[in-house]
């Protein structure tokens, strides 16, 4: 120690020693700051900061050494070898850089210590290489205990400096590490200088390539400027880095507070380190009361206020066990206040975990609403067809040997009339009222569904012994549905028809059961509506036959199996045939002629009546062009055809393509056509009549509003229904109706045609009542188009004979 003090006081210039200390502290501060930048960076950015740090630290050690060497005066003059001086600088930079790189490696917790030791080795290597660069006219001897002591000082203090810098990145940590590194450099240098003894030898020659102290001063000054430049760069970089960090912190805080989820960061023991406002809002506690507290304390608090179900300790331990195993866990918490929370725990590297807390109450309600809407009718809130099938399948699975499952299919009678006359809003309210009556009529456990339109269905489950019979339920439903409804000031009366199938008697397959109930419903409607029918095997056979007939009917047009028959219409007074009514016939290749009453209703139900009607219209106009001028052709139009938007264009196209005069075409409609949408239908009839086409009302007198339609549209003819004509001689009511209709025709100037005339007695009565035309088997049955010419030649003679 005495030798060290003597070295400092006797052989050194204190002013330069102080300068060396300042440069060393400045360089150490720069080195530690750059080390922190490298520690925070990754990849290439870390390598760049490490290179800069190695240059700053190495140059700082080197500059400190040679400034101190300039302060050293051995009394015999000294110069400095250039090559060894440069090598000493490289040793400082490379070895110090290796130590700093080692300190940042994560392979061991001792990495910073080992790195610091290597940095101390770099200080020693630089110093002793620098001492070799000193060119003296004499010989140097060493005190090896002091040499060892100098190396130990550098290694120990270097290890402390680097370890401190690795652990602490705040301003105080930087200051402590910089002071320790300065002490490592300074203590090593002056201890090593105390180990030096110089023995003068004037005969020893100096190196030719060496620097004088003045030249070395310039070099050291340049290195010092370089260090100051690095210091400036480090300061600016540090300022910018802090600005970036500060801005990132502001953005991070804004992001955390703006999250829709609650976020909480906990340490490895479950203590809360950080949480955002959303988390504190859900937890019901302030951030100040949560930070530093255990998550278990929060759970116990929630338990105390009655907003946590279960055991807090058990729940906390289960979560911590998952975190310890590195598992990401997700939990759903149901609170007593009705909220549903999704909790996700994500372990963090190095211990601790991040918890996200999301209130999914509204989301779950929305999901439940979507699921409900997917299985329920939007208008009535009854189960829809999809959910009905599911409930039916469940019912079939639950039934035991002694139990029955009944499927009831319901269709509202006259509902379409309500929609057409009162409008769809009233119709919708009526459907809601029907749905309520149906729901009130069944037991708990039974299912009422709306399948679509005015179709409803019920699944009835029960044992044969104690359950109300399906027939009793059906009878009660018919009675309840038929009771009057009061809707928006309107009293509405409808009915219902019901089809019933039973499981396992009729089938155990859900689809087949529904199909069987639908067939029974069709039978109930065919039998007059307002009642119910059970499924029978014969219905299935009839349905299959109907399906086969429908398939054949779809191909009948393309196979040219349809043909037209014509029945003459004769003037009562003159006996002249004034026209023919076109009647379609189906000549089936295997079944022969199929009656119109068998396939026309089927065509109307399936919509096939539209292409068939178009064909009839075109064919009748085409064939009528070969008849004498003035002979008209009458074609019936179905109510279904009036649903087509192109009816007017179809009629005009038939006339145009055939060349038939418009006044020779007579279109016959029934009151049913006008019932659908009277305003729209009458508008279409006016368009047709404006083109010269004649319009007649068929089956007059069979509807309840025939007279009102005569006032709404100027028909060109009235056709008296054959049911009245056939009872002329037997029922006075029929005679009165025929007399009233013919009298009405006379007063309005509208010709009347009687259908179904079969006897001379009927003809005589009609003539006496002033009927204009007749049509029926008395004159001629419907005959093929090839016979029309013969009918026209023979009509006068035949009429004279029967008259």
List keywords for this structure.
single chain; 803 residues; alpha+beta; Beta-Lactamase; Alpha-Beta Plaits; 4 domains; five-stranded antiparallel β-sheet; 29 helices; 27 strands; 18% strand; disordered N terminus
Residue fraction in strands: 15-25%
Computed Rg: 55 Å
Strand order of the largest sheet: 18-19-21-22-23-24-25-26
Taking the alpha carbons of the first and last residues, their distance comes to 163 Å
Give the averaged pLDDT, no decimals.
81
Helix content: 55-70%
Largest sheet: 8 strands, mixed, barrel
Q: How many structural domains are formed by the residues?
A: 4
Question: What class do helices, strands and sheet pairing give?
Answer: alpha+beta
* Number of E-type strands: 27
| DSSP summary: helix tally | 29
Low-confidence stretches: 1-10
- Shape descriptor reads elongated
SSE topology sketch:
Elements: H1 2-10, H2 14-40, H3 43-71, E1 79-81, H4 82-103, H5 111-132, E2 134-135, E3 138-142, H6 144-167, H7 171-194, E4 196-200, E5 210-211, H8 213-258, E6 262-266, E7 272-275, H9 277-283, H10 287-290, H11 295-304, H12 312-324, E8 329-334, E9 340-347, E10 353-359, H13 361-375, H14 385-398, E11 403-413, H15 415-422, H16 424-441, E12 447-452, E13 455-463, H17 470-482, E14 485-487, E15 490-492, E16 495-503, H18 510-526, E17 532-534, H19 537-556, E18 562-571, E19 577-588, E20 592-594, H20 596-606, H21 609-624, E21 632-636, H22 647-658, E22 665-669, H23 671-676, H24 678-690, E23 694-700, H25 706-712, E24 717-720, H26 722-725, H27 732-748, E25 752-755, H28 760-769, E26 773-775, E27 783-784, H29 788-802
Parallel strand pairs: 16-17, 19-21, 21-22, 22-23, 23-24, 24-25, 25-26
Antiparallel strand pairs: 1-2, 1-5, 3-4, 6-7, 6-10, 8-9, 9-10, 11-13, 11-16, 12-13, 14-15, 18-19, 18-26, 18-27, 19-20
Helix pairs in contact: 1-7, 2-3, 2-7, 2-8, 3-4, 3-5, 3-8, 4-5, 5-6, 5-7, 6-7, 15-16, 16-17, 19-20, 21-22
């Amino acid at each position: 120690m005495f030798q060290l003090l003597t070295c400092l006081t006797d052989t050194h210039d204190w002013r330069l020693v102080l300068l060396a200390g300042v440069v060393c502290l400045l360089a150490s501060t720069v080195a530690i700051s750059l080390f922190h930048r490298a520690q925070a960076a990754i990849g290439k950015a870390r390598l760049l900061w490490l290179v800069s740090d190695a240059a700053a630290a190495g140059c700082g050690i080197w500059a400190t050494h040679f400034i101190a060497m300039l302060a050293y005066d051995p009394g015999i003059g000294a110069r400095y070898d250039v090559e060894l001086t440069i090598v000493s600088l490289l040793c400082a930079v490379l070895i110090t850089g290796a130590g700093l790189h080692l300190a940042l490696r994560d392979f061991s917790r001792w990495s910073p210590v080992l790195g610091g030791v290597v940095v101390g080795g770099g200080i020693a290597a630089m110093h002793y290489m620098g001492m070799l660069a000193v060119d003296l006219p004499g010989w140097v001897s060493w005190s090896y205990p002091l040499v060892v002591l100098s190396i130990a000082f550098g290694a120990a203090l270097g290890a402390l400096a680097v370890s401190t810098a690795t652990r602490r990145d705040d301003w105080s940590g930087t200051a402590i590490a910089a002071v320790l590194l300065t002490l490592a450099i300074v203590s090593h240098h002056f201890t090593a200088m105390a180990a030096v003894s110089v023995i003068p030898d004037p005969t020893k020659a100096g190196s030719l390539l060496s620097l004088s102290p003045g030249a070395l001063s310039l070099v050291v000054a340049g290195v010092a400027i370089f260090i100051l430049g690095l210091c400036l760069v480090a300061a600016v970089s540090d300022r910018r880095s802090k600005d970036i960090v500060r801005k990132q912190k502001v953005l991070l805080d804004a992001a955390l507070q703006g999250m829709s989820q609650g976020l909480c960061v906990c340490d490895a023991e479950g203590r809360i380190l950080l949480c955002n406002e959303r988390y504190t809002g859900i937890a019901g506690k302030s951030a100040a009361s949560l930070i530093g507290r255990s998550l278990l304390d929060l759970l116990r608090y929630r338990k105390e206020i009655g907003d946590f179900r279960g055991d807090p300790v058990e729940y906390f331990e289960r979560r911590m066990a998952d975190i310890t195993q590195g598992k990401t866990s997700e939990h759903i918490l149901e609170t007593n206040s009705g909220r549903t929370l999704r909790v996700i725990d994500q372990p963090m590297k190095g211990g601790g975990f991040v918890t996200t807390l999301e209130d999914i109450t509204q989301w779950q309600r929305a999901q439940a609403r979507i699921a409900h809407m997917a299985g329920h009718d939007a208008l009535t809130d009854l189960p829809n067809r999809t959910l009905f099938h599911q409930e039916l399948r469940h019912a079939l699975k639950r039934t035991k040997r002694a139990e029955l499952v009944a499927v009831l299919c319901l269709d509202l009678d006259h509902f379409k009339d309500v929609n057409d006359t009162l409008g769809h809003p009233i119709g919708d309210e009526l459907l809601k009222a029907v749905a309520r009556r149906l729901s009130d009529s069944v037991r708990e456990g039974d299912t009422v569904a709306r399948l679509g339109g005015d179709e409803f269905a019920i699944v009835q489950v029960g044992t044969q012994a104690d359950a109300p019979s399906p027939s009793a339920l059906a009878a009660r439903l018919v009675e309840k549905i038929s009771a009057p409804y009061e809707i928006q000031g309107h009293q509405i009366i409808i009915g219902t028809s019901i089809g019933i199938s039973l499981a396992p008697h009729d089938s155990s397959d859900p689809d087949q059961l529904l199909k069987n109930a639908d067939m029974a419903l069709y039978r109930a409607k065919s039998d007059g509506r307002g009642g119910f029918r059970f499924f029978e095997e014969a219905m299935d056979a009839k349905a299959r036959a109907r399906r086969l007939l429908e398939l054949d009917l779809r191909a009948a047009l393309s196979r040219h199996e349809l043909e037209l028959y014509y029945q003459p219409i004769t003037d009562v007074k003159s006996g002249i045939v004034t026209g023919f009514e076109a009647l379609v016939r189906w000549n089936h290749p295997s079944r022969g002629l199929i009656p119109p009453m068998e396939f026309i209703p089927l065509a109307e139900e399936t919509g096939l009546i539209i292409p068939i009607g178009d064909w009839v219209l075109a064919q009748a106009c085409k064939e009528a062009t070969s008849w004498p001028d003035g002979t008209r052709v009458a074609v019936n139009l179905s109510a279904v055809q009036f649903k087509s938007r192109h009816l007017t264009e179809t009629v005009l196209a038939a006339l145009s393509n055939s060349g038939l005069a418009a006044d020779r075409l007579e279109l016959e409609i029934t009151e049913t056509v006008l019932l659908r949408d009277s305003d729209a239908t009458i508008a279409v009839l006016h368009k047709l009549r404006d083109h010269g086409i004649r319009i007649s009302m068929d089956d007059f007198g069979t509807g309840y509003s025939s007279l009102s339609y005569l006032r709404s549209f100027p028909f060109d003819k009235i056709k008296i229904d054959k049911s009245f004509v056939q009872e002329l001689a037997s029922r006075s009511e029929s005679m009165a109706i025929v007399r009233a209709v013919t009298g009405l025709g006379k007063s309005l100037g509208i010709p009347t045609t009687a259908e179904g005339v079969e006897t001379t007695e009927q003809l005589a009565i009609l003539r006496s009542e002033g009927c204009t035309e007749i049509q029926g088997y008395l004159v001629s049955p419907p005959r093929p188009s090839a016979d029309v010419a013969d009918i026209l030649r023979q009509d006068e003679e035949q009429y004279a004979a029967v008259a």
